Amino acid sequence: MSANYDDERHNLILMLEELDHRLTTITNDVRHTDETMEKNSEKIATQNENNEVQDFLGNSARVEIAAIKQAIARIDASEYTHCKTCGETIHPERLKAVPFLTQCTKCAYLAEKH
Ligand SMILES: [Zn+2]
């Protein structure tokens, strides 16, 4: 039986578009904050904090984008359900919950412990 992950692939592409959009919004916010930065030190501290939060959001979006792109590549290479660490099959229910997983339960658990 040859597995077909067109639906998953489609979902991943939608997620990618949504993240791209979110990332653009975050980037625009940061730029806006920089432009309006005032001399008031208290305000600058708050704005720096905001920038850190936005940096964090931007970074996590970038990490997610990379993971989703990898998942799409894995579908194209027919490796979608293969754990990248041990080669075991990733449980379909897990992929349904988090469609950009690359590891089986065991490997994900071990990776987290390290
Ligand atoms: Zn594994």
What does this structure look like?
The protein has 114 residues and is an all-alpha fold. It has two domains: 1-80; 82-114, no CATH class. It contains four helices and no strands. It has helices at 6-35, 41-76, 92-97, 105-113. Helix 1 runs antiparallel to helix 2. The longest helix is centred in the middle third of the chain and has 36 residues, at 41-76. Residues 83, 85-86, 88, 103-104, 106-107 line the site of zinc ion.
Which ions and ligands are bound to the chains?
A: zinc ion
Shape: elongated
Mean pLDDT: 86
Q: Give the helix/strand class.
A: mainly alpha
Q: What does the main sheet amount to?
A: none
Distance between the termini: 37 Å
Number of DSSP-assigned strands: 0
**Which stretches are low in confidence, meaning pLDDT under 50 for 5 or more residues running?**
none
- The ordered H/E elements are HHHH
For the CA atoms, what is the radius of gyration?
19 Å
The share of residues in helices is over 70%
* Residue share in β-strands: under 5%
Number of domains: 2
Per DSSP, the total helix count is: 4
In short:
The chain has helices at residues 6-35, 41-76, 92-97, 105-113. By secondary structure, the protein is mostly helical. Helix 1 runs antiparallel to helix 2 (41-76).
